[in-house]
Each structure stands twice: as structure tokens, then as C-alpha cells.
Design a protein that fits this description.
By secondary structure, the protein is an alpha/beta fold. Helix content is about 35%, strand content about 20%.
Amino acid sequence: TQRHSMAISPVLLLSDLHLPPTDSPYRDGFSNFINGPARNSAAVYILGDLFEAWIGDDAGLVDYSRECVLLAKLTFSNIPVFFQRGNRDFLVGKQFAAKTGVHLLPEYTCIDLPIGRTLLTHGDGFCIDDIAFQRFRSWSRKPGMQNAFLRLPLKMRRYISNKLRYAGRQKRVQETPNKMDVNDQEVVRLADQYRVSQVIHGHTHKPGRYRTENGKIERIVLPDWRPDQMNYLICDQMGLRTQSVL
């Protein structure tokens, strides 16, 4: 368990930037974040989907060389950075960690924040009502399947990744929003398993603070980045608040 309860500097959390590999205001915003507020923090937690697609460290370290350099400079200056894989960048691996100095976290991680013991996760594991997605998620996380995919030629991996993202966009248009949101009982189950009363996650693109139906668990959803809204979460002795990099 990481402990930041006594830290004077704030802990910063963000997710769902979906940085593209081409020039983008999002990439500029991330650069501003790393070179600005991140340098005055106690730690930075990135809870998945930092990248629009990560099809292997060999490709990602090239496609996102700019971000990798930024992260390496930050960790070299003794600001710890922690990364949880999301559904877009679950193939982030050991080469990325070695190049950047970023600590890779398991899917569910408890940390001690000034607001108390908190469970961190990307959030897609809570969306159990989306059965087709959960089947793909389970299949794609198997080491054998990942190794087989990573052995494919780069051009083929890009093709498959683009096809999957297109299918995902079509599905979001067709599906009911509730089916793709978190399952309240699953949140309660995992919060009880990890003995916490608050959870911070991303993935749903529904930023805000929510209570589970039983009222016992607070669920804090990180803001996803949009053209006019590139926010991150600050946690310090004064509590939680969002801040913009724009």
C-alpha cells in the first residue's frame, strides 16, 4: 500500500486522456501537466487510457516517444509516477516501465491518501453488465493471447487495433448507457474485499462523485479529457478538487 497521508505536496490523479500518436492539443495538455503541476506533487497516478492505443512496447515507445521522455524526466526528478493499465493501453509493459521509470500497478491498488484509504482502478472491471466487453476483456488479458498478438507484424497489429476501436465506437452508439456503466453491486463487492469506503476510477467518462445504493461507498470518477476540458484530480489535506491544464 502506498502512503501519502502525511505528504504536504498534493497527490495528482488522472485518466482517459486518450492521447493520439499524432499532433494533438491533448498531447500539448499532457506536456503542460507534466512540466507544471506534476513537478510540485507528491506523486502522480495515471489510472489507464493515457494512450488512445498501445499495441506493444516496441510500437508505443516510438509512437509516444515524446510522452515517454516527459515521464522519464519527471521520475528522474524524484516524483513517483504510478500507472494502471486501461482498456486502451493494457499492453503497456516492462520496456515502457524501464524507459520511463514509471511504476506499473495491478488492476486494483489500495493507497493511503489524505482523504483516507482508497481503492484505485481503471474502472472497466466494474462494468460487468456489458457481457460482450467482459468476454473480450478476459480473453485479451490472457498472457498467451497477448504474446500471440505481440508476435504479429506491426502493420497487422495496427490494423486489428483500428478495427477494434471502430467496433467499440459503433457499439457505444447502439448500446444503452446504463449497460456500459458500472455495476453498483460490483463496486460494493470490491470495496468490501479491499476494506475501503471510497473508490477512485476512470473509464466511464462520467466524472463526478457518486454514492452506491447502500450509501456506504463513495465512487469518485476521474474526468476524461475533451477539447475544452482537460482536468485532473488534486488530493491533499483540503480534500479533493479538479484542476484544468488549460
